[in-house]
Amino acid sequence: MAEDPKFHEESERIHEYREPKVVKESIFTGSKALEKAPKIYGIPTGIEGLDDLFFIVESEDGKIVKKTLGGIPAYSVFNITGVSDTGKSLMVEQFTVEQARKGHKVAFITVESPANFVIASIKLRAAAMGYNFEEFEDNVILIDAASHSTLRENIPDLLATLAYAIKTYHIKFTVIDSVTGLFENKEMLARGVVRRLFNFMKKWYQTALFVSQKRSGHEELTAEAAGGYAVGHIVDGTMVLAKELIDSSFKAKLYRKEVGDIVRLFRIDGCRMSGHDTKTHYLEITDTGLVRILEPIGK
């Protein structure tokens, strides 16, 4: 009912005639807000070449210096977007393996494939990273929204299930692959769905990665995803993955490839919780199925 546009229109009409109310609980002084602010530190991702692309700025001896975070900012919510076969799912699986290997519990909400297929893929990623998956396999907590339509179609049920898992397993990291599957055939609701997910992650102090699909008509290196720019606007930052066919001598010279090759690209499109590298980098999917972020274009 809450996702019905007519419901929202009716709600807006009700609010239009209601006496405005002061919400005093929403007002904080800077110091009071800081008392509840989490300390920002880097979360190593398990993705070669990515962790050094995030930094903070500090003052040392009167000088402003940049210091690498050594990972994505803790408690951040990132959107990872790109067309198919660019490495999005591989990236979040590597992230999942890295956190689980270190003893952390990770909620992996699978919306596209059943849990048994996803865990088999994560096990392959662990093997490629050189780890014995059996030593930490139960640190991955799968929530199968692909097989349970009530989770895929009803966001309150999904969030209630995730809250239960977080409390039961003391989860600090959440992956959703993909958020696009939560608003298939109703992209006009994408902003509302992503906003609810984002607010939930913040309430529960999760560091989260949302995979979202690009439509074929979208420009390759923009942050636009299914649901429009609003999806990327809501989250803390977006990582854009792209692939391009080398179909001209100009592209061959630019990317130092042969005509007919495929080049994969990566860039960070904004991060409100820390500084970040702004260059477009080459991205590689190795023959063992791992994503690596390489040097910037032109270097």
From TrEMBL:
NCBIfam families: thermo_KaiC_2. Signal peptide: none annotated. InterPro entries: Circadian_clock_KaiC-rel, KaiC-like_dom, KaiC_containing, KaiC_dom, P-loop_NTPase. SUPFAM superfamilies: P-loop containing nucleoside triphosphate hydrolases. It comes from Persephonella atlantica. Residues 41-299 form the KaiC domain. This is KaiC domain-containing protein. It comes from the Bacteria.
